[in-house]
């Protein structure tokens, strides 16, 4: 695989930088017991579509910013109902994605 694109706090503390080529960090990862996974962009795209479909059912206006970031405009939702909406959203996401 090519480079580091997602890092835990522990990996960051070891000095593994975003975009670091794998060949430059391979030995460090082996020595420190860092577990490395390959990317699965087909899965990420599918999960992103599922999440955004769920969001559309909860908010009339959403902005899809990237594959893993979306913003929901909850202005029309009465503030007292937002916590319940959050619980319902979490439950629906879990049902649709298994996450």
How would you characterize this protein structure?
With 99 residues, this protein is mainly α. It folds into two domains: 1-39, no CATH class; 41-97, Reverse transcriptase/Diguanylate cyclase domain (Alpha-Beta Plaits). It has helices at residues 9-13, 22-32, 41-58, 82-97; strands at residues 62-66, 69-72. It has a two-stranded antiparallel ribbon. It is elongated and about 55 Å long.
The main β sheet shows up as: 2 strands, antiparallel
Number of helices: 4
How would you describe the shape?
A: elongated
**CATH H-level superfamily of the largest domain:** Reverse transcriptase/Diguanylate cyclase domain
CATH class of the largest domain: Alpha Beta
Helix content: 40-55%
């Amino acid at each position: 695989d090519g480079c580091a694109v997602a890092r835990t706090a522990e990996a960051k503390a070891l000095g593994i930088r975003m975009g670091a080529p794998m060949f430059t960090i391979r030995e460090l990862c082996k020595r420190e017991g860092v577990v490395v996974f390959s990317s699965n962009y087909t899965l990420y795209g599918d999960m992103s579509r599922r999440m955004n479909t769920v969001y559309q059912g909860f908010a009339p206006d959403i902005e899809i910013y990237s594959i893993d970031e979306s913003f929901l405009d909850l202005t029309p939702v009465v503030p007292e109902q937002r916590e319940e909406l959050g619980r319902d959203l979490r439950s629906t996401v879990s049902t649709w994605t298994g996450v």
